[in-house]
Amino acid sequence: MLLHWRGRERYTVFDTDYGDGSGVRALVQAWRDDPLRPARLHVVARADGLMPGFHRIPQAEPGVTLDLLSAPLDIALAQLVARLDFIRLHGIAREGTAFARPLARIAAAHAQLQASGLSAAQAAALAGEGFAFEEASPSEAHFASRKPRLPVPATPQRRAIVIGAGIAGSAACERLCARGWEVTLIERHARPAMEASGNHAGIFMPLVSKDDNIPTRLVRSAFLYALRYWEGLGGIGRAIDGAACGVLQLARDAAHAQVQRAIAASGHYPPQFARWLEQPEAEALLGLPAPDGGWLFPQGGWARPGSVCEAMLAACGSRLQAHFGACGARLERAGDEWTVIDEQGQVLARAATVILASGAGAAQFPQAARLPLAALRGQVSHIDAATLPALPLVLCREAYVTPASHGICCAGATYDTDPDPALWQSSHDDNLAKLRALLSDPHAAAKAPLKGRVGFRTVAPDRLPLVGRLPDFDAAGGTERLREVPRYPGLYSLLGYASRGITWAPLAAELLAAGLEGEPLPLEASLADALDPARFVLRARRAPRGPHCIPTDPEQ
């Protein structure tokens, strides 16, 4: 393998059994010790004991990426977006032969393979897909198929412009700078996190569902990655203001609780991730009435979005050049570069890659104006903590309330389409009514003065973010497949995070950065497609455009 990886920009290894991780650790050490190593090493391995799906595990070593896949081998390979340079097959005697075709699809030209314990049928299936086994060493093979391979992605210029210094843009800056990119950040406000990311507290928590649908799987992947990612920045409650105190999501009523019990009985969720609590246990934990029980998410909690942005931008170091108080008014493309121009016609920056991460502000650019994004007004109420019972964790149902921080509890948030940024007494009253219902106390926060904050979240009709290269709606014609939708060259989006900006931001930025670099993606192909902004080009043709949905997720 050492000779095989030398002289390459990146090298990807696939292992069918992560085991105790010792094999991967040895591989990384060999990479570290080789002065002629590739700049980036990507290790993808199947692992047991994890929740279903793909898990990107952040590494202390900047040039190393580790993905652990929890899925049957054939399904994992069919969903893996990567080019494999070295393949290690072992412990798969009972896997059948269905894995051979998806493996060949993602094998790089001249990929090397090491195998042990293959059945005769498995070896024959691999040979039929283009793997040529060595006569002198039947456990080794190389990929010799003459079928056309996708071209190796060109090394990018590694210069980008990010528009917007909220949670989405700050994460994009950090993930690109970590890969050696030089990034210019343009923000119209005087400092980061002044729009929706400026709230005092944002909640992070996963979803559960009976059918483990695409939104549930996406939020789970984003939530688990965010927990690992924040540790690399110093941790919630340490470098980042907040607390991983847990979240208790109460059932709405007895009927809703019965549905949740059925989900809990399925056994899909380990207790450290999500645990259903019946009334006695929920009330003992909370110290308040919980008549229908609820879901405890022990790893959930709250964080101040602005502190998350500050930690991410600080991690960028000297690779980041930030322009605050600068408003990018338009984008112009000339040759291979985009130019960002301000309202006075002055050039702010030029680069081949531009990432729109400015929330509702992205609609001012014609290239993004047809994206079906709604700006939803959300008012959060700031309540004197002394007027509320002391909460050991975040409590939510139709609304949420956070534990005290600096003498304040945050309660909310409202959802409406009015563009007024001012605090409304009616929205405050609505927050207080939901808070009192949540606490089962009609006198909680009595005479609470009108204090809080209004922010505007951008929301797509399906409530999922828009992560990837922007589609050209006008050039789409009769395109019916996602990969054939025309795109603006070098123009990308990180938009539509709705009420889950804290949760979405790290994984969405990692997904975008990995795609720009031509690396293995941190998500299954079907999940990455579900976030592709071009999905709306296809949907606009298939059905009339309906009204924007307003989410009710009690986060941020």
UniProtKB/TrEMBL annotation:
Q: What class of enzyme is it?
A: transferase
Question: Is Ubl conjugation given among the entry's keywords?
Answer: no
Q: Which GO terms describe its molecular function?
A: tRNA (5-methylaminomethyl-2-thiouridylate)(34)-methyltransferase activity
Q: Might you give the EC number(s) for this enzyme?
A: 2.1.1.61
Where in this chain does the entry annotate a coiled-coil region? none
Q: Single Gene Ontology BP term?
A: methylation
Looking up SUPFAM superfamilies in the UniProt record yields:
FAD/NAD(P)-binding domain
| Keyword line | Cytoplasm, FAD, Flavoprotein, Methyltransferase, Multifunctional enzyme, Oxidoreductase, S-adenosyl-L-methionine, Transferase, tRNA processing
InterPro entries assigned to the protein according to its UniProt record, in alphabetical order: FAD-dep_OxRdtase, FAD/NAD-bd_sf, tRNA_S-uridine_synth_MnmC_C
- What Pfam families has UniProt attached to this entry? DAO
Q: Which residues form the FAD dependent oxidoreductase domain?
A: 160-513
NCBIfam families per UniProt: MnmC_Cterm (TIGR03197)
Record protein name field? FAD-dependent 5-carboxymethylaminomethyl-2-thiouridine(34) oxidoreductase MnmC
Q: Which organism is it from?
A: Massilia solisilvae
